[in-house]
Amino acid sequence: MITAAEFAETLARFATGVTVVTVADDRDDIGSTVNAFASISAEPPVVMLSVLSSSYLAEVIERRRRFAVNVLGARHKAIAGRFSAEGRPSARLLLAGEPHHRGERTGALVLDTAIAALECSLLQQVEAGDHTVYLAAVDALPRVGPTATDPGPLVRYGSRYRTLA
Predict the structure, then answer these.
(1) 91-126, pLDDT tens digit by residue?
(2) CATH of 4-147, one of 3.40.630.10, 2.40.50.140, 2.30.130.10, 2.30.110.10
(3) CA dist., res. 158 & res. 135, Å (int)
(4) Which of 32, 40, 45, 63 shows the greatest Cβ crowding within 10 Å of its Cβ?
(5) pTM of the predicted model as reported, rounded to 2 decimal places
């Protein structure tokens, strides 16, 4: 079980970072770079994710009700770009050559070198303009970085990926 302290300590450092959200779909693995991600509650652990309502990612999150969040570090600029490109292929192909595994709770792809990773299950969704805001319980923390060798987080500012390292 995840403690409130573990959750708060992990997200306090990375809530403004760039994340890649992945979902294991029946047909394939999908994923997208997401900038609107934040911690909502430490006890119980709850996060917020905002996704374009008309996107395939939103459709699959609503159908599967589980997803993984990978918090990216400075070394992941290329991954962030791949997952934000139009017409991108399968998430498995986008992570080819990158160490990753399937999350035990979600079956979604978890990047082994992410600064932090969370497995989440959908609690509630709210329509907000052209986006859907998802509130999700944090069921597992398969990667609770950072380690001493991890770079700083990857952030998006001024329409560009930047680092704080």
Answers:
(1) 888 888 889 999 999 999 999 989 889 999 999 999
(2) 2.30.110.10
(3) 27
(4) 45
(5) 0.84
